[in-house]
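Crash report, auto-generated. Payload:
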Amino acid sequence: MEIFLQQIINGLVQGSVYALVALGYTMVYGILGLINFAHGEVVMIGAMLAISSLTALLGIGVPPLLALPLSAGFAMLGCMALGYGIERIAYRPLRHAPRLAPLITAIGVSIVLQNLAMMVWGREYHSFPQLIANSPHSIGGAIINDIQIIIFILALAIMAGLMLLVHRTRLGRAMRAVAENQHAAQLMGVDINRVISVTFMLGSALAAVAGMMVSANYGLAHYYMGFLLGLKAFTAAVLGGIGNLRGAMLGGLLLGLIESLGAGYIGDLSGGVFGSNYQDVFAFFVLIAVLVFRPSGLLGERIAERA
Amino acid sequence: MTNLKNSAPSPSQGEGWGGGKKFSDSASPLLDARDLKVAYGGIQAVKGIALHIAPGELVALIGSNGAGKTTTLKTLAGLLHPSGGQIHYDGKSLKDVAAHQRAAMGIALVPEGRGVFARMTVTENLQMGAYSRSDNSEIASDLARMYELFPRLAERKNQLAGTLSGGEQQMVAMARALMSRPRLLMLDEPSMGLAPLMVQKIFETIRDIAAQGMSILLVEQNAKLALQAAQRGYVMESGAITLSGAASELLGSDAVRRAYLGG
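Recovered output after restart:
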């Protein structure tokens, strides 16, 4: 029972990070019909920017509780600029090109960013400075520590904020209008290029926060970390129904739970043949299963038609 | 024959402008397109047309399927780029003015097929119509006015627009366009696919709006209805304007009767 509860906790925490990243995939897909495979690298760069700025701030004696929000803001701004630049340079010229071109470009952007990060930050692991005691708490025999609690609550708060933005504000209405019918949105006076830029920047800001959360949770960041994380978050977006915001959140949390429970029990179930190091396999089982049995995802409608 | 003017399909300056002598020659037009050419997927869909709309005028653009009417409207709205010619709106050239900027200048298009935001509520659709405006209290009172004008929509304001009937969606599209407080309202086939009763209702609304002084460019396949509502009309065939003049004269012309009014 403790193992079960522990895996639920781990799964929800990891899943809330997947959800934040999945939102970035799904927002861009919803508006452009494009899978931005470079999104995982934005997460990685967010983590790297946060760690670098945090280390620098702590080095000049800034108190940790001030340094943390400052570096978070720095990472978010950096990633927003990056997301804006990616769309502007790599995707906008291909807006009317056949679908394969932007997809291949996305993979290209991903490779470029990975290599740039390797040049800037090197191949070594960077450790996330320890800022708080991170004391563990026991719930029914399972352990949850401070950082995990912060990650989970913060992720939920950000998701709630995003839903409010999308459903209650003028900008959010414009985003939904562009997602549904670009021509009609233009006729209403919506500058679709601006909305697309804002969408990329929003997704990238979420990615920066997610990158910071992952590196704080595991204590490490690495130039290659965006690849697998990005693929899993993409899986989460597909699981929930790509293009659907609620779907991305649900898919992220579910994928976190599936992975964590799978890793927790695979040893017992397979009689010790497979260990928890097979954790990553579950995400891709899920991806294949969804694509085969329910390609539109859990909450997905049929793929939106464009007028 | 009538005294209708047969404009040449080829571009020629000063022609097609003021086709109906009795109308609006003195007032400077709100919209003035000259020698407008649009190529669409390699085909010359609009071949150098001239048309204008005076302030407060209801002008019908009729013609058969594929004549280039929708292409003309989309070009005026900025969704398509002309390959030649000029468009002036309120005396200013619309060259290099993007569609969203034209909307903010008061040009509204109710597109063919309505283009409502199906996954938004009726109210959200109407709020989108006021996207370019920032006078929030006025927007709220305009919203209330739309619900007076279209009581059917008031009953359905929180419903997703995609769940409405075709006629109701047409009302949403029109109310949404009106929410921008346009100076020029362009309607593309508002009667398409609607039941006769609904068509009547939509046209009543168009007449009401016109009576309040709105400038309207109405594209219709239902030539009779359109010409009965309009003051002036243009007839478009294969990308060129072949006839223009007072709507009543067009209604009486043999050529129009034979081609569009079923004898």
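Post-recovery validation: Residues 5-25 of chain B have pLDDT under 50 and may be disordered.
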